[in-house]
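Input record, target 12 of the design panel.
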């Protein structure tokens, strides 16, 4: 059985669904601070024989996570449970260190005590900080510029050290995640929403203007370039990372992205195309701390995990728009 921490959240629920589609038994552990009952209902409904239950608990409570491993045959953990908003981490770093670092430490301790030796970790490109070159590969220096990235880097380093207790880890560093389940069962439900694509789509048809931050960067159209990876491709990468560990793979890190990038204007244009009507836009000054270009070098994930992204940006936007319309 696979334990998915944060499995009621956006990426975690898509991954849990993909794991069960591939024949895995899954249990979800989530505090429900950011997760949704809808996601849990979907998992239970779609795979009643594979979904082995939900435990509501907080990783900051050592006893809460330790109790999950008692009397259960858990083979591996896929770990998503974390706070992930950069701006919030700047305002309240203590909250991020207590949750992302302290919670992960408790999880790794419970795994070591229970003899569970494999973890796939949801990490981030934010561990790299300001890029020294692009595309960014896995040997790029890691100098995070915000507490969110710093906490994820500390969690990665803990996983390396916990190798002394027999725990092997696959640390997946994603870039920008987008999209929704192709069948419309799951999608993005953040409140407040901070991601570009859902924020553009939420503006569509409302008469409100979308705020485009930064139009004077040294890029092809003056707006930031980011690497957008579809959430379904991301879920597939977690499945392949789990298989890699099962086959005896050593602890390692992998960048997940498309090896290319889209500007904010290009993403906005795809959103307008998918929606089928103009979306009002207001150009605003750039935000502090936004690098001009963040693009992944994904060759290692391709060669070692056998992973390649399949979805286009338009695929991701189309699925996200279908999800948005279903919720209006």
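The sequence produced for target 12 reads:
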């Amino acid at each position: 059985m696979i334990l998915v921490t944060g499995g009621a959240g956006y990426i975690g629920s898509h991954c849990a669904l993909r794991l069960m589609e591939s024949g895995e038994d899954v249990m979800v552990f989530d505090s429900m601070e950011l997760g949704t009952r809808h996601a849990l209902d979907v998992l239970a409904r779609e795979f009643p024989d594979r979904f082995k239950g939900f435990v509501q608990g907080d990783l900051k409570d050592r006893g809460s996570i330790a109790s999950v491993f008692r009397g259960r045959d858990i083979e591996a953990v896929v770990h998503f449970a974390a706070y992930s908003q950069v701006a919030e981490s700047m305002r309240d770093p203590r909250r991020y260190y207590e949750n992302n670092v302290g919670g992960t430490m408790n999880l790794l301790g419970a795994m070591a005590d229970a003899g569970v030796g494999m973890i796939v970790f949801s990490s981030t490109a934010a561990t790299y900080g300001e890029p020294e070159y692009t595309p960014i590969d896995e040997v790029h220096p890691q100098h995070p510029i915000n507490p969110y990235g710093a906490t994820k880097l500390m969690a990665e380093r803990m996983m390396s050290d916990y190798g002394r207790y027999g725990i092997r880890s696959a640390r997946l560093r994603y870039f920008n995640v987008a999209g929704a389940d192709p069948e419309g069962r799951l999608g993005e439900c953040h409140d407040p929403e901070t991601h570009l694509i859902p924020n553009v789509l939420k503006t569509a048809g409302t008469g409100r203007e979308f705020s485009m931050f930064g139009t004077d960067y040294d890029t092809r159209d003056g707006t930031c370039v980011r690497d957008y990876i579809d959430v379904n491709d991301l879920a597939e990468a977690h499945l392949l990372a789990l298989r890699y560990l099962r086959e005896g793979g050593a602890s390692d890190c992998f960048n997940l992205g498309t090896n290319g990038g889209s500007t904010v204007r290009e993403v906005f244009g795809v959103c307008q195309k998918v929606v089928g009507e103009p979306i009002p836009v207001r150009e605003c000054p750039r935000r502090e701390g936004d690098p001009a270009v963040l693009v992944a070098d994904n060759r290692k994930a391709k060669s070692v995990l056998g992973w390649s992204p399949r979805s286009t940006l338009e695929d991701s936007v189309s699925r996200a728009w279908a999800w948005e319309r279903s919720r209006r």
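The radius of gyration is 19 Å.
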